[in-house]
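#dry-run=false #mode=assembly
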Amino acid sequence: MMGASISALALTYRMGTATRMGPGYMPFFYGMFMVLVGLAIGVFSRGHQEEGGEVTTVNWRGWLCILGALIAFAIIGVYGGLVPATFIAVFVAAMGSAANSARTAALLATGLVVAAVVIFSYGLKLQFALFAWG
Amino acid sequence: MEQALADLLYGFGVALQPTNLMWVVIGVVLGNLIGVLPGLGAMTTISMLLPLTYVIPAVPAILMLAGIFYGSMYGGAICAILLNLPSHPPHAVTCIDGYPMTLNGRGGAALGVTMMASFFAASVGIALMVFVSPLLEAVAFKFGPTEISAVMLLGLLAGSTMARGSPLKGIAMTLFGLFLGSIGTDVSSGIQRYTFGLPDLADGVDLAALSLGLFGIADFLLTVDRREVSTTTTRITMRQMMPTRAELKRSILPMLRGTGVGAIFGAMPGTGPTITTFVAYALERKISKSPDRFGKGAIEGVTAPEAAAHSKTQIDFIPTMSLGIPGDPVMALLLGALIIKGVNTGPQLITEHPDVFWGLVASFWIGNLLLMVLNVPLIGIWVRLLRIPYRFLFPSALFFIAIGVYSTHNNVFDILLVAVFGCVGAIFLLLEFPVAPVVLGFVLGPMIEENFRRAMVLSRGDLMTYLERPISATFIVLCLALILLQFYSYLRLSSSPRPAQAMH
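#status=ok
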């Protein structure tokens, strides 16, 4: 709960100050309101600090792989083309789940590459080179 | 009245055009499917298909997206009743009595009754939409920038405070959405705001990227390796779906009451479907002569909430379409889609784009009818589909998200944005901040700003104009009432030690 209010506060400060008058008129008020609400959350949540028992553990492997897959798709998409980007993104994402072995992940990735080529290149004529060099 | 019927006929003409009809079918079937699959909500799917709508015209696009929305409501009920899996929050209530019915061997009947109730409630909702919207249209002509921004303020407040969880957090999230909406080039001065010098942000944040990150990716992040495997051996045949006469008799009144509850909640902007179904269920239990049957497979406990969910779903479209105020985040997304298509949303929508409005109304009816028919053979297939493990599902969905977002602008920057918002969304969810209001704020933000500025120009910077004009004054008063109500309920909650438990 306190973490929540702190993060809200951190967010508000950045927004509250980074405004200019004129076009910044509305954003300035958004920022002000956010500071207020952030403070209010801080005050109210202090009121009933309770049941911190259920700590949600973050699945680091999943997070890393899923976010990594998106970033990989973006980068490889530019420098390598659709086919390698799809393969690597799906493979990495699938590896994010402990239930997947490297083999099933590769199979899934291959299947989706085929689907991607058929649907997006031939079906929808998307402007995305299958392979690109550099 | 006659005018409305003529318009409706025209709408059927639009909706029955082969291409439009095709998109309706795609929409409802897809919606039905994702309604069944746990973890993929209407929100995610609509955002995933948002990019696709860039290539098809406005009318079929909106018909399809809407189809996904109400189609998923049908699907969600299947999951809740047969598997005790509330894949979507509004159906959590349906589980309470639906699953016991399955255990008692009456799962088929529960599904049959649900479908009947849904169809009935949706029809009532559509009928209301046909007759109420033109009335609103007449009022809409009196709406200037002042009124519009006042209504939107109400919509935002309602949307953020009525959602589940703490109202303050909802407001914080709405503000965050407003902030995101202000990213990009300022319309009236051309100055870039919050772009941090990134040229890719000059056009603002993409709606598809935002919603996919917040709902799609964030959801994957939180559920990887956490979803337990579910299997079912239930087989549903056509014959099982016919409820007995006694069951039918017991369902009729709850069906009507549920529809009524849904209609009332649908008319109130910002009330989510979840609260609607809970209220409908609570009402049924309260007036029932034998409340102890609830929770053990009382058919009323299935009918009423499902009817309420469906009538609300349809009626939600009234404020969205006739006033441009989305009742809930899904509506905000649909509105966003219309704006992307260059359709001017707001009070003038019905007059300026009768094909969108009446076509949509007519397509609701066709779509609901299709769902009734389709659901019977499809249930078996859906149930089998549920066996696809999540570990295969999410990498595939991730890929479709990535390529879908890329295709909106042929720009990889948006994919990175999805990653960022996914991360942000997951953190918010971990901290128990609702993410749905972000989208509400994001879509309404630019509209509010524009109208607020115009109102200020018209009144020469006098804020009192909001109180001097009767319509906007009413809305402002309603806003204040909402805030006071929240304070009141907060005080009441904190005075009695632990009433929150009763909610679960």
